[in-house]
Amino acid sequence: MSEHHHADGFDHHHDNHFTAMEARVKALETVLTEKGLIDPAAIDAIVETYETKVGPRNGARVVAKAWVDPDFAEWLKRDATAAIESLGFTGRQGEHMRAVFNTPDTHNLVVCTLCSCYPWAVLGLPPVWYKAPPYRSRAVIDPRGVLAEFGIDLPAEKRIRVWDSTAELRYLVVPERPHGTEGISEEKLADLVTRDSMIGTGLALSPEAAR
Question: Is the CB of residue 116 less than 8 Å from the CB of residue 126?
């Protein structure tokens, strides 16, 4: 096992379960708590919110309902903000939403070219790559190439439509429903919906892949 030598001249043996970044965050949290600048309970509440109440599972529920309920799907197309809010998902960076539906002819891809606008209420916190300049620029210039790097090789005849999120409007991709999912419950269908499939850099999982 190799040792990690640092510029400060000390060998740090990692004898705890924290990564280097987690250890730094914990240390900062401790210092700020001791100075009375933050309340640990408030931090825990925020973390719990994004882990259990906000995140891709919310968006997955929206997609699954659209797959099984044509009336809801039409509402989602017409007024995504209201349809999503009817399921209890609203709030920070989710106030103005538009749902775009993948079809056999068209694949949708979402990017924010200016910064990292992202629908937190349905997708949680944005992945690092979504905020990175290479994705933000190349998704517009070479969307097919970007998708190939994510492992998505689309037929040449399939159109790729790129949507640019802004502070005023954010997008949710409704992926195509996988084949062989007839008769599967809405709850189980939600398990097939991934965060990346709702950004457009992935596809919904097959029932076999989800097992």
Answer: yes
